[in-house]
Design a protein that fits this description.
3 helices, 7-stranded mixed β-sheet, 25% helix, alpha+beta
């Protein structure tokens, strides 16, 4: 088990009936056209311990940890920032809210990634978003 997997397992076990969330940094391996072939979760920082059905955090919460995170992990500056959050025992899936977040956060250049983790049923779900040449958000669940 990798250190990232151990950290996810810790949070899922420690907060098995509450959702948690925070920013996550992903490295992308792209094909010759720049489209992602694979994603590697490099780091995440839980910012919110919600309740049984929701978790959220604000940009000001991220601002408080961003400088320190980049000082401690400078390689993250070359990664894409996205999201990680739990669905605890409900199973991992993309709810309407999760899909809307992906659409809202889709960047004009690059990608926005989201990983949902859970303790029961499906253990994870992953999707990424970007804006196409017409400025329309595209969401791919993989």
């Amino acid at each position: 088990m990798t250190p990232i997997q151990s950290k996810i397992q810790y949070f899922n076990n420690r907060f098995s009936s509450k959702e948690w969330s925070g920013p996550a940094w992903y490295r992308i391996v792209a094909d010759e056209n720049g489209f992602p072939k694979s994603f590697i979760l490099e780091h995440f920082h839980p910012l919110d311990l919600g309740h049984g059905t929701a978790t959220e955090w604000e940009a000001k919460d991220l601002a408080k940890v961003l400088k320190q995170t980049y000082e401690k992990h400078p390689k993250l500056k070359s990664c894409y920032m996205g999201l990680i959050h739990s669905h605890h025992s409900m199973g991992a899936f993309f709810s309407g809210t999760d899909t809307s977040t992906l659409e809202d956060m889709a960047p004009d250049k690059g990608f926005y990634c989201s990983l949902v983790v859970a303790t029961k049923k499906e253990p994870f779900a992953f999707a990424f978003a970007y804006k196409d040449q017409y400025g329309k958000a595209q969401v791919y669940e993989v």
